[in-house]
Amino acid sequence: MAFDPGALAPGDVVLVAGGATTLPGKLLDALIRWSTGSPFTHAALAIGGGEIIEGVGTVQVNAASKYARIGYAFSVKATDAQRESAVAQARRRLGRPYGARELLLDAARFDLHWIPRWARPLRYTTCSGLVAACYAAAGVALTYAPWPAPGDLGNSPALVGPRPWEGVRTA
User: Fold this and answer.
1) At what angle do helices 80-92 and 127-137 cross, to 10 degrees?
2) Which of 7, 82, 162, 166 lies at 20 to 30 Å from 71 by C-alpha?
3) What letter does residue 9 receive in the DSSP assignment?
4) 33-42 mean pLDDT
């Protein structure tokens, strides 16, 4: 589970399994786990130098070390040019607000089994939507989910890395 933030290559995907420290954050983590059936509650894109770009309030750059103990690092089956393009796409989105409406669409998809049709494209993204959109713009489909949750990325065959459920044996 633990990863070395300094070993993240630009374009690597970090998926986080819980770890919120505030009550609202813990509640959101629990709701995401419950809704998606996945341990992953957050996603970010590595940009190199031990930093990530993530959607938390706004799209921003943060130290990857904040998730080193509770996150999973994945490389992406993509060319170097596609990874660089995904990082450039993420940089272009710096400062954009988090997509609260898109988070509600995630809830509609998972909890109500309803996929609404919108007359206009979504303007903002959630954390996992940011990662998926940046790779989609680079020509790599990480998932075909309309508004991807972290669990959708965790199940992506385009990501290479450990899954929490791998190696678990049941009687």
Assistant:
1) 130
2) 82
3) P
4) 83
Total domains, the chain:
1
CATH of residue 47's domain is: 3.90.1720.10
**Looking at residue 101, what is its pLDDT?**
63
Residue 71 belongs to domain spanning: 5-159
50 lies in some domain: yes
DSSP letter, residue 139: T
Helix (H, G, I), strand (E, B) or coil at 55: strand
For 81-133, the pLDDT digits (tens) are: 999 999 999 999 999 887 666 666 666 666 666 666 654 555 667 889 899 99
Would residue 164 count as lying in a domain? no
Q: Residue 80 to residues 46, 69, 76, 84: CA-CA distances in angstroms?
A: 14, 27, 10, 6
Q: How far is CA 53 from CA 45, 99, 112, 129, in A?
A: 5, 15, 30, 12
Tokens representing residue 46 in the block: 């590595």
Q: How many other C-beta atoms can be found within 10 angstroms of the C-beta atom of residue 9?
A: 14
High-pLDDT (> 70) share of the chain, %: 80
Question: Model pTM?
Answer: 0.85
